Amino acid sequence: MSFIANTPTQRDEMLETCGAASLDALFECIPEALRPKSFDLPAAQSELEVQRYFEDIASRNFANLTTFIGGGIYDHFIPAAVSAITGRSEFYTAYTPYQPELSQGTLQAIYEYQSDICRLTDMEVSNASLYDGGSALCEACQMALHATRRSRIVMDSGINPVYRTMVYTYTANLSIDFEKVDVTHGQSDRNRLFAALDENTAAVILQNPNFFGVIDDHSDIVEHCHERGILVIQSVYPVAMAVLKTPGEIGVDIVTGEGQSLGIPLGFGGPYLGFMATTKKLVRKMPGRLVGRTVDRNGKESFVLTMQAREQHIRRDKATSNICSNEALCALRAHVHLSLLGPEGLKNVAKLCLAKAQYAKQRFSEIPGVEVMTSSPTFNEFTVRLPINAMDLVNALIDRNIAPGLPLGRFYPGMDNYLLVAVTEKRTKHEIGILAETVEAVLRQETR
Amino acid sequence: MATIFEKSIPGRKGVSLPLCDVPCDPIIPEAYQRKTTLSLPELSELGTVRHFTNLSRLNFGVDTGFYPLGSCTMKYNPKITEVVAGLNGFANLHPFLPQLRQGGMLVQGSLQVIYDFEQALCEISGMAAFTLHPMAGAHGELTGMMLIAAYHRDRNNDKTEILIPDEAHGTNPASATIAGYKTRTIPTNRKTGMLDVNVLAEMITDKTAAVMLTNPNTLGIFNSDVAKVAEIAHQHDALVYYDGANLNAVLGQFRPGDAGIDIMHINLHKTFATPHGGGGPGSGPVGVQKHLEPYLPISRVEKRKDGTYSLEYNYPKTIGYIAPFYGNFLIYLRAYAYTMLLGAEGLTEVSENAVLNANYLMHRLKDVYTLPYDRPCMHEFVLSAKRQVANGVHALDIAKALIDRGFHPPTIYFPLIVKEAMMIEPTECESKETLDAFIEAMREIAALAERDPKAIQDAPVTTSVSRPNELRAAKAMDFAAPA
Description:
The complex is a heterodimer.
Chain A: H1 8-18, H2 47-58, E1 66-67, H3 80-86, H4 89-92, H5 104-121, E2 125-126, H6 133-148, E3 152-156, H7 161-170, E4 177-181, H8 190-195, E5 201-208, H9 219-226, E6 231-236, H10 247-250, E7 254-258, E8 274-278, E9 291-295, E10 301-305, H11 312-315, H12 328-365, E11 371-372, E12 381-385, H13 390-398, E13 402-403, E14 406-407, E15 418-422, H14 429-446
Parallel strand pairs in A: 1-13, 3-4, 3-5, 5-6, 6-7
Antiparallel strand pairs in A: 2-8, 7-8, 9-10, 11-12, 12-15, 14-15
Helix pairs in contact in A: 3-12, 5-12, 6-7, 12-14
Chain B: H1 45-56, H2 79-85, H3 88-91, H4 108-125, E1 129-131, H5 137-154, E2 161-165, H6 171-178, E3 182-186, H7 197-203, E4 208-214, H8 226-235, E5 239-244, E6 263-266, H9 268-271, E7 286-288, E8 300-303, E9 309-312, H10 329-365, E10 381-384, H11 386-389, H12 395-404, E11 411-412, E12 421-424, H13 432-451, H14 453-457, H15 470-476
Parallel strand pairs in B: 2-3, 2-4, 4-5, 5-6
Antiparallel strand pairs in B: 1-7, 6-7, 8-9, 10-12, 11-12
Helix pairs in contact in B: 2-10, 4-10, 5-6, 10-13
């Protein structure tokens, strides 16, 4: 089934109009020597067969575990209205809003989304979206390097370790110096961070809450950096922004983050939503699309893509970024999600996460042999040290249908016994209780 | 339409959340607390649904009508692929699950999808290996540039520049620059509309890391010298990057891998019918030949002897992570379902009918609009409004007049090498009746441009807004509703 409407009769009429003897004649420009050596694919299947095939394949995934995994991607509740709205084909079968008269729906929704991000972060301007939180951080680095014309970046080790390696990959062919500064008691280490700065430092990258779930007030770091002409990039968790000191409050220059927690399904890695917000001063260096409010020729309020002289389709090799397609539909999901929750709803979600994580922390602290890392305050995620390799605990719990957290050994050498536990508003007291009891039982058996 | 913030009433709620079932006294230390007011929309669920439903009615999608936006391939997005992407086993799968039982034993279904779709793309394109990680076409280009850089670095080649034809998408030079290369522009032969191999041979140097090629190019012309391009590049130890933005034109007719192409990307949202979402998300898998495979991003999926699939990270020469996980999984899942629905025969019908539809439109319009390259086209062709400009009617005006006649306009003012360009791509899905209606509208507009140009300059008159002032938008810098 190739979704072709024309009948053989119509096809012949059209070929005649074109003066072509056959369909093959249309491809005479391809030399015989360049015709496919092979094109061996399975035969077409019906819609019913394809649906059954994928239902079967999907059932082989363990999607129904009670999950306490986070690490930047969280299992939050998504109201039904989010998918109902973004499932309207006027939204999802449209292209980039290049013709504003046919795209006021998308354009206004993006403008509203940009407003949401500005309000969440207390920043002046948000772009229309980037791919994900990791590539958004990479873009922020490029932006800071260009804005300062310096070539050194200092990173706090509390930033998502995968994002950190992405930044290395993205800049491998440029001459950029990096320094990674380890956290102390889970928080940014001021002394070592400040010592790492020099006159060639373009930016410092921080994360709040950081990868270990620890929260921080980075205002002293921002102040210190600004005195030296260094920009501060902060990666943030949008749900936490409802209750935590915002980047705008402390004067951060570029904010990035992963927007998956705002109504976007886990989806085995994507599509997600990279967001970026900055100051009006830096807007000309910002990557990605931007929607602005204006009036039309009759004076009517309308929305358009604006400041396009930054972008690749206008500036080509001089563009601030190569990004073209972004995550527009995911941005729409985030905007719908935030509209349904409202400020009180989002605060409520944040407080539920905080309270339940607090409860889980307490339950873990009561398990013999388990140490909860409590020297610094956390949001909805925390680190525990186990008496055994975290992988062994995880394996035992999966058999009981629980994913108890993310083992950290893979990301931080020497941390094989550490587990990162995340709790969202979806987890119940009962589930947290079962988690704690099962961990205790497994440890009792394993350490006997 | 009023913004959602203007419709907001303090205290109104659009969603209910469970009561807190644990002790509820979490305290954030004072220094870490937000002090500013958080102001987000406050509406009922119905109010929210109506706001967005009414916004959607100001939009135009493929499901609304004919959308011949050249180079963007606005083909029909089959509904079953949405159902597949919504299956619980995929949509609710945490991407860190493979870390919990190593090698990915908890996500065998998803790993099989990745493995099998990579294999299918290899067969479709003639390449040796694919990565599905790039999250859009431009991201694929950037990944490609990183792979090219890693390849040359590994061989101690001193390569500093990428050669790019002047008709290429803007993402090509932008991607090359972001990856640290200088770019040089190859002028298109104004007679053939193609990259001229003699010009390439003159321009290429030992500093050339790669040549980028879109084939068919953005004029809709297939470059039959593609193998020669590869030969010239390889003589200089340069690689050839194939921008697969237009692969839909040659499905089953031509495979880049058979012509000596070293590396390429595919825009799944173009060739394989995943929805464009109002600008994204996309997916831009990158395919390589054997000599570039060691550098592919991690992770990769391997098939074990026992038939299970494993997620592997240990590739010493890899460029590393270009995405946090495995790319836009739910997008390429849709594309994979689409290839299964079509099979080899269906995919070949795609290119046949896309090319037929484009040629039909071209033949029926070339007497009223200027056709700068008058030769058979592939999936798209470029007209110029040169003739209409004499009466003060520009490509932009024609685009707006089409809107009043119920059509989405073609891509205008691209490629840059054609003045007053109108780039038309009908896709394979559209019926002759639709094409005829579009032809009639285009011809009527051409006639009206001579008789009453003002009527066209005044368009559109049927939409909620008409020609928003872009200059004013750039000046006003109103990017967010004031809180």
